[in-house]
Design brief:
This protein is of the alpha/beta class. It has three domains: 267 residues, 3-Layer(aba) Sandwich (Rossmann fold), CATH 3.40.50.300; 72 residues; 79 residues, Arc Repressor Mutant, subunit A, CATH 1.10.10. 40% of the residues lie in helices and 15% in strands. The chain is built from 18 helices and 15 strands. Strand 13 and strand 14 form a beta hairpin. Helix 16 runs antiparallel to helix 17. The model has no long low-confidence stretch (mean pLDDT 83).
Length: 483
């Protein structure tokens, strides 16, 4: 199901939508100088997507706590709780799918970094059963992922930077989609900014920031001048969830407002200078100090836990049923995309299974008919170039390989495919890529293990070329160099 979030218009009255499901898979970076409208943009995104997806907001200035009344966000005052309680809140948030605002206002920079690191790691380390999709919005991201060390202790900076890197680099597998906003790209760690695929670039003046923004938008340096001329609330948008080419968008209106607004000019007092001097130098009377306002009582962690548990879960839209043929086609296409990812060969099947489930849902399949074991076997087939559901002779080959561990199935099928088609025997490098290793010694031990079980017969001719026969099937590869 496609959910479009209306961000505003392109200046001609045409709406500019954002694909929410694509955003969950590709992440977002918002950049603009102070006063360019970043917080307004984030508020628009949050208001328009409320009820469609879980929202988790890291709020260093307390601007987003006003979302709690109209949209039901639970506000967590970080200053009232310990680090251990913050981690427990994060795990409960994932379990109950509650939308929350973590208010970091009142903490020093070091405290904000430590709290954000603990909170993000709590979200990240939640059990696999709670890996539901969620937007994680981080305002003023340069505070939590600085490009260089500052006045805070190094251990706090490293912890915060590591948590932000995990959110942007590995969060997608766990359903966490990072949406980060920063005043200056030059102050934001590059490995955090580089993981975003969607960009909304607002007004900025410094040449170094304009150059980086132009690079991210795919613009020439001379075109970057237009970033300096953007009006407040106007952004250049690019990315798979927005547009394939940079477009201008004027952010629409919002229903809520921050507790602190922009300063407005008010008339100065019209008292004559003499009267003003008399007021300033008047005898200061020792008046009794006014009684201090009553300090707000912190919300006990138990009460906050109950609020999180009682928070209404985000409804999960049911996708229409698919026919068996459509299901097979979607699974084959998803497996083809996973194998095409160069990094997938070195990721564990359990991690890739989460990626598989997310991709299937984005393709319109709510519940793929594969468990982890079934996915592992289909992945092994896909790595051998067999993307469709095995049948006929391939089903016989799979039955023959049933005695092998699952991680060796891909190697067996890679060789079996070459033997069935009569093509050259796969090289050690090809087998290593399928097995997920870079060790050629391990490849030779792997082939020896399969040969010991009478599944392979290996021949090396006088030219040093290798051919492999699968005797039970009568298939043989052509001779080819080992390397």
């Amino acid at each position: 199901m496609t959910v479009l979030v209306d961000l505003g218009n392109d200046g001609t009255g045409k709406s500019v939508p954002m694909d929410l499901e694509e955003l969950l898979a590709t992440r977002l970076l918002v950049q603009g100088n102070s006063g360019s409208g970043k917080s307004h943009l984030l508020r628009r995104l949050l208001e328009k997507s409320a009820g469609q997806v879980q929202q988790v907001i890291l709020d260093p200035e307390g601007d987003f706590v006003t979302l709690s009344e109209p949209y039901g966000h639970v506000v967590i005052e970080a200053i009232d709780h310990s680090e251990r309680e913050i981690i427990r809140f994060a795990q409960r948030i994932r379990e109950h799918r509650a939308s929350v605002v973590l208010n970091l206002e009142g903490l020093e920079a070091e405290g904000q970094m430590r709290c954000a690191a603990a909170f993000l790691m709590g979200l990240f380390d939640a059990p696999r059963d709670y890996w539901y999709p969620a937007l994680v919005i981080v305002d003023e991201a340069q505070l939590f992922a600085p490009a260089a060390g500052g006045e805070v202790p190094e251990d706090a900076r490293r912890a915060s930077l590591s948590a932000m890197t995990n959110l942007m680099c590995r969060g997608r597998k766990r359903g966490l989609a990072g949406v980060i906003a920063t005043q200056r790209l030059a102050k934001l760690a590059k490995n955090v900014a580089a993981e975003a695929s969607n960009f909304l670039m607002g007004r900025t003046f410094l040449d170094i920031d304009m150059a980086r923004a132009a690079d991210l938008l795919g613009m020439e340096r001379r075109q970057a001048e237009q970033i300096r001329d953007l009006q407040r609330g106007h952004f250049l948008a690019l990315g798979p969830a927005l547009s394939r080419r940079p477009i201008s968008v004027k952010i629409g209106s919002v229903e809520t407002a921050a507790r602190s607004g922009s300063p407005k000019l008010t008339p100065l007092p019209d008292a004559p200078p003499a009267d003003m001097k008399e007021l300033l130098f008047a005898q200061v009377e020792e008046a009794p100090p006014p009684p201090p306002p009553p300090a707000p009582r912190p919300v006990p962690s138990e009460v906050l836990m109950e609020k999180l548990a009682a928070s209404a879960p985000v409804p999960v839209a049911e996708l229409p049923d698919k026919s068996a043929e459509e299901v097979d086609t979607i699974i084959a296409d998803v497996l083809r995309a996973i194998v095409a990812d160069g990094d997938s060969a070195f990721r564990s099947p359990s991690v890739l299974f989460q990626d598989f489930q997310v991709r299937c849902r984005m393709a319109g399949l709510s519940r793929p008919p594969l468990d982890l074991a079934g996915f592992t076997r289909r992945l092994s087939c896909a790595r051998a170039g067999i993307f469709e559901k095995p049948d006929g002779e391939w089903a016989q080959a799979l039955e023959l390989a049933a005695s092998l561990p699952d991680d060796m199935l891909g190697t067996f099928l890679l060789v079996a495919r070459a033997a069935k088609e009569g093509t050259p025997c796969p090289s050690d490098q090809e087998i290593a890529a399928t097995y997920g290793t870079s060790s050629l010694g391990r490849v030779r031990r792997l082939l020896g293990y399969i040969e010991e079980r009478d599944l392979f017969v290996t021949r090396i001719d006088l030219a040093g070329k290798r051919s492999i026969t699968i005797p039970h099937l009568g298939w043989t590869t052509q001779a080819a160099d080992v390397a």
